[in-house]
Amino acid sequence: MAEGAARDAGEIAESLRKMAKMVNNLSARADCEPFREPVDWKALELYDYPKIIKKMMDLGTIKRKLDKGKYSDAAECADDVRLVWKNCMTYNADGSDFYRLGESYSKRFEERFQKLVDEFGEDVICGNIAAQAAPPSKKKTKTSPVPNASANKKHKSDKKPFDPKGIIPLDVRTRFAARLQRLSGMELGHVLSVIDEKCPEALEEPPEDQLRSDAQRMTKKHNYALDEFDGGSQIEIDIDAIPSHIFGELDVYVKEQVSGRGRGPWSDELLTEDGTKKKKVKT
């Protein structure tokens, strides 16, 4: 058992090393300058920035945390990387140069991170192996979404059953959160309509001071019809607030939709190898 635990710890350390290399490569790109250090909102006179962006993050801070061993696994680091792009796209208007830059880096990062997940498997990336090897009282808990990754064939944790009347296991919830980001606009609309109908308390709208100026104001009940949902509203799903029996229904649906979709970003507008564009479904 000790030998297996040491091997697992080694795999987690190696995945973090490759994660650091990925962050360094992204940061070295010429157009990555806005993301390398914290936004100097005072010097730029962006006085509404700390009101809109509650948790600031940048690649320089992430690199320093990696160097100091602050991340327990690659998924935790990926959450911070995603926050960099999310903050950029939250503060800047959709369609602006900065918004498009953040969006392109988000897609580029997810492509590379998916390869890391495929190489090590979700259990290593999420630190589940280390958590399972530790005493129950010391098992770590994560509440933030983890990698945008499909299940690696070498790790069959997706098949772990859960009691529909009991507590939903952490790894089931985190994989559900990851798969949501692979859905098309219509598929996500179905998920949101089910939640809005059966457990509306699980849908969260950002406070007015955190909404972009161009964000669509929503009124209850929300319109999430499959043929009308365009992904334009800013709505967050509190997975922990979804009752287990409803979660089970949604989990089956999401698994069916993302099955066999392959690697990389889930948006349908991707550049192919020859530079041409594929069809886009707004999510």
Which helices and strands occur, and which strands form pairs?
Elements: H1 2-27, H2 33-36, H3 49-52, H4 59-67, H5 74-91, H6 97-120, H7 122-125, H8 128-133, H9 170-180, H10 185-198, E1 203-204, E2 236-237, H11 244-258
Antiparallel strand pairs: 1-2
Helix pairs in contact: 1-4, 1-5, 1-6, 5-6, 10-11
Question: What report would you give on this structure?
Answer:
The structure is a single chain. The protein is mainly alpha-helical. Helix content is 48%, strand content 1%. The protein has helices spanning 2-27, 33-36, 49-52, 59-67, 74-91, 97-120, 122-125, 128-133, 170-180, 185-198, 244-258, and strands at residues 203-204, 236-237. A two-stranded antiparallel ribbon has the order 1-2. Helix 1 (2-27) packs parallel to helix 5 (74-91).
What helical percentage do the residues reach? 40-55%
Number of strands: 2
Strand order of the largest sheet: 1-2
Instruction: Specify the number of helices.
Output: 11
N-to-C CA distance = 44 Å
- Tell me the major beta sheet: 2 strands, antiparallel
Radius of gyration from CA coordinates? 19 Å
**Assembly category:** single chain
Q: Low-confidence spans: pLDDT under 50, at least 5 residues?
A: 133-162, 216-233, 263-283
Order of helices and strands: HHHHHHHHHHEEH
Structural class: mainly alpha
Mean pLDDT: 74
Instruction: Estimate the strand proportion.
Output: under 5%
The best one-word shape is globular
